[in-house]
Design goal:
Low-confidence stretches: 176-193, 434-446, 543-576, 586-607
Distance between the termini: 89 Å
Keywords: Glycosidase, Hydrolase
Family: Belongs to the glycosyl hydrolase 32 family.
Number of strands: 27
Organism: Chenopodium quinoa
InterPro entries: Fructan_Metab_Enzymes, Glyco_hydro_32, Glyco_hydro_32_N, Glyco_hydro_beta-prop_sf, RVT-Znf
Largest sheet: 6 strands, antiparallel
Strand content: 25-35%
Helix content: 10-25%
Protein name: Reverse transcriptase zinc-binding domain-containing protein
Number of helices: 12
């Protein structure tokens, strides 16, 4: 706008009013970036590269967008620009003074910036990465400003810890207004949840249940793992908090992996976890709450004496992880760490008097040949005289112990029941052969199609059966409050291959209870060992693992007694199906759920 245009604007002659300047580039007289671009270009077109549109459409805070706009126009006050404006006598970078501090140097080439970008594996989904990248740029610039004015550490390694938490929070908050208000809670969560692993540190503290779990916020496969943190007052309704642990220190810079939580005397919680060092050595670490008065335990501090356990020369440094909850016995705290020595799966036993200095026992708690790496071990007592739970340090004549491991070679979970000899530090199973159950075989390739992997099931109570030979589990009693709108169907004769609809179920989740009365089993098939794999059986029945066809259809001809029950919404949109099969000669219950469908499963009841 030239001088003539400015003079053409009339100025109000009113002593009671201050001076007003109207912008001639818009009808309302208000300055906007869009109107300025129009004047500069001399037409109504947007910038040719469209970069402004990419910036303003990011799901980040406005100040981050403004920073990106300044970067696009080289308006950042880095030292080279400050030198041009006589605001500094030195255009060099303060971290690496051999280089001029240009915009590219600050955000990309400086060794401090490179250290941050090196940690980013870019395993996020395409819709998330641009916003995360923008936020990373913002925090790098903020860190640089603090360093330039002597208000921050020249080591930026902890920026990423804060960055991950802030991004997750920003993504969730800014996304609420854009989501479909009619979407189910599961659909809302699916946009954020990516890769989810089993819980690693459940505990109860000051009226709240705490659940920690390994979590990848940015992708549906393993990677970028943090210790996510949720709390609940009733074990049913959970509130997600800021992640408790991120990789940030030399002893965990390449990963914060599985572990456990223990409540020490004086009601003092601690977290034990496996960290992966810069040289890819697996070590064991401890973290404590920053504020014990906070019942939510939002902040955790990694101890200065980490690592508390490093692998000795006889321990494989790449197969040494997943600490159990600690128990007190014989004047020592004890923990188990999973490992493998040659062909033997190992549960190494460590003990400590002060929870700081730990010593490996002469013998492992337990081991078994040809079982591979023992992942995620667990070791806990169970009562032989009732269903009540026990403290982890409980021993005695009416107590047995359970050792649970996940075998890396089979990807199944196994457990044994036996006795723990506290004097010798040995666990002896009741049966020499591992007794357990098959886990779910999972098609890892479909995780990218679904965009997520893993769920947290409802917590369960665990106790011994009356004969003391196997574990019994059942959802916690708090789940009863979720039951509503009971739908019953009684005295329905079922024939092989029959299908019928149960009306009145309008939710995507239903708890199904079925009672069979069978006049005889003469026509039932003899149990076939191939039926043990429920997923294979689903495929044989025509289940579509991608979830496009949520019915399991099978023509149960002959003596193979199959009845399918389809659960459909009032709108007749099929939500899923359950199929029951009866056979003779085996006592077992197996179940498979197609994770890509809402409610699809097969339950085999073997008599």
């Amino acid at each position: 706008m030239d001088g003539k245009e400015i003079l053409a604007h009339q100025v109000r002659d009113d002593p009671s009013m201050g001076d007003l300047l109207y912008w001639g580039g818009s009808l309302k007289g208000r300055f906007t970036i869009k109107s300025a671009i129009k004047i500069i270009r001399g037409d109504d077109d947007a910038p040719a590269d469209g970069s402004w549109e990419l910036v303003w459409n990011l799901r980040v805070l406005q100040r981050v967008k403004v920073l990106l706009w300044l970067i696009l126009h080289d308006r950042l006050m880095h030292n080279v620009n400050r030198f041009k404006r006589d605001l500094t006598n030195d255009p060099k970078c303060k971290v690496c003074p051999e280089h001029d501090e240009t915009m590219a140097h600050v955000l990309r080439d400086c060794r401090a910036a490179r250290e941050i970008w090196k940690q980013e594996r870019n395993e996020m989904s395409p819709e998330i990465w641009p916003s995360y990248f923008a936020l990373a740029i913002w925090w790098i610039w903020k860190w640089r400003c603090n360093v330039a004015f002597d208000k921050g550490d020249e080591n930026p390694i902890d920026i990423r810890t804060f960055l991950l938490a802030r991004f997750e929070e920003t993504w969730r908050v800014l996304g609420d207004g854009e989501q479909n208000p009619n979407a189910t809670s599961g659909q809302r969560v699916e946009a954020l949840i990516r890769w989810l692993a089993p819980p690693v540190g459940p505990m109860y503290y000051k009226g709240l249940y705490h659940l920690f779990y390994q979590y990848n916020p940015w992708g549906s496969t393993w990677g970028n793992i943090v210790w996510a943190h949720s709390v609940s007052r009733d074990l049913i309704n959970w509130e997600a908090l800021e992640p408790a642990l991120h990789e940030s220190k030399p002893f965990d810079i390449n990963g914060v992996w599985s572990g456990s939580a223990t409540i020490l005397p004086g009601n003092r919680p601690v977290i034990l976890y496996t960290g992966l060092t810069a040289t890819s050595v697996q070590v064991q670490n401890v973290a404590i709450p920053a504020n014990l008065s906070d019942p939510y335990l939002r902040k955790w501090v990694k101890s200065n004496y980490n690592p508390i356990i490093t692998p000795t020369s006889d321990v494989n440094t790449s197969l040494f992880r997943d600490l159990t909850t600690a128990w007190w016995s014989q004047g020592y705290w004890h923990i188990v760490v999973g490992s493998r020595r040659k062909h033997r799966g190992m549960a190494y036993l460590y003990k400590s008097r002060d929870f700081k200095k730990w010593t490996k026992a002469k013998h492992p708690l337990h081991s078994a040949p040809n079982t591979g790496m023992w992942e995620c071990p667990d070791f806990f007592p169970v009562s032989t005289r009732g269903k009540n739970g026990l403290d982890t340090s409980t021993t005695g004549s009416n107590v047995k112990h359970v050792l649970k491991v996940s075998l890396d070679v089979t990807r199944f979970e196994y457990y044994t029941i036996g006795k723990y000899d506290a004097n010798k530090g040995r666990y002896v199973p009741d049966n020499a052969k591992i007794d357990g159950w098959n886990g779910l075989r999972f098609d890892y390739d479909i995780t990218a199609l679904k965009g997520w992997a893993g769920i947290q099931a409802i917590p369960r109570s665990i106790w011994l059966d009356p004969k003391g030979k196997q574990l019994v589990q059942w959802p916690v009693e708090e789940v009863e409050r979720l039951r509503a709108n009971k739908v019953e169907l009684n005295n329905r004769p079922l024939k092989s291959g029959n299908r019928f609809e149960i009306k009145g179920i309008t939710t995507v989740q239903a708890d199904v209870e079925v009672t069979f009365k069978i006049p005889n089993l003469e026509k039932a098939d003899i149990f076939n060992s191939n039926w043990v794999d429920p997923q294979d059986l689903c495929i044989q029945m025509g289940s579509n693992v991608r979830g496009n066809n949520r019915d399991i259809v099978y023509d149960g001809g002959g003596s193979y007694g199959i009845v399918e029950t389809a659960f459909c919404a009032e709108a007749k949109a099929c939500l899923g199906a359950l199929t029951w099969a009866l056979a003779k000669g085996f006592k077992r219950i197996a179940m498979y759920t197609d994770c890509a469908a809402l409610v699809v499963g097969v339950i085999l009841l073997f008599l």
